[in-house]
Amino acid sequence: MQIDHIYMYKLIPDIGLMVLIWLVQLIIYPSFRYYNPNNLKSWHRPYTSRITVVVLPLMLSQIVISIILLLISNWSSYYIIDSLLVLLTWVLTFVIFVPLHQNIDKNQEASASVSQLIKYNWLRTILWSLIALLSIYKTLIVN
Q1: What pLDDT sits at residue 143?
Q2: Dist. CA 98–CA 72, nearest whole Å
Q3: Taking the model in full, what pTM does it have?
Q4: pLDDT of residue 118
Q5: Cα separation of 69 and 100, whole Å?
Q6: Distance CA 90, CA 2 (A)
Q7: pLDDT tens by residue, 34-91
Q8: 141-82-80-5 Cα dihedral, nearest 10 degrees
Q9: Least crowded by CB within 10 Å, which of 56, 68, 85, 101?
């Protein structure tokens, strides 16, 4: 299979994550502010379980395809950058966002955690948008 064909498959998780992160940033996380702490705690667990069913397959497929492209491209600088951007989204997710969501689940500083989710999620919003735009450019314009 040619590298161009594999890259076409990368469009699915890249664009999917970009659309999803904009929904999270503009609608979902801000809506958390409208819950009182007890209602937020009650809603948050089902929300994180349900959103994980959507996010995890996209993130896993994105990183797997990025690594495959990196390896078969003989470590091309473009694919190194792409893989580093994808890896950075994983690091941010597990270092910053998972602990913030855990705070909400435990009802510890929930209001502050929601504010931090909204504030820091701009990093992932920018990264996943950049990854998707680069993927669109590489797949549809360059090739």
Answers
A1: 65
A2: 32
A3: 0.93
A4: 98
A5: 32
A6: 27
A7: 999 889 999 999 999 999 999 999 999 999 999 999 999 999 999 999 999 999 999 9
A8: -50
A9: 56
Asked if residue 113 lies in contact with residue 104, where contact means CB atoms within 8 angstroms, the answer is: yes
Contact 112, 33 (CB under 8 A): no
- Render the burial of 58-67: b for 16+ CB within 10 Å, e for the rest: bbebbbebbe
Question: Please, what sign has the CA dihedral across residues 40, 47, 121, 18?
Answer: negative
Residue corresponding to tokens 């990196």: 70
Q: How far apart are the C-alpha atoms of 66 and 64, rounded to whole Å?
A: 5
Q: What crossing angle do the helices spanning 37-72 and 110-136 adopt, rounded to 10°?
A: 30
The answer to whether 124 touches 89, Cβ cutoff 8 Å, is yes
- Provide the token pair at 2: 């040619």
Listed by start position, the domains of the chain span 3-142
> Mean pLDDT across the chain, nearest whole number?
94
CA dist., res. 43 & res. 131, Å (int): 31
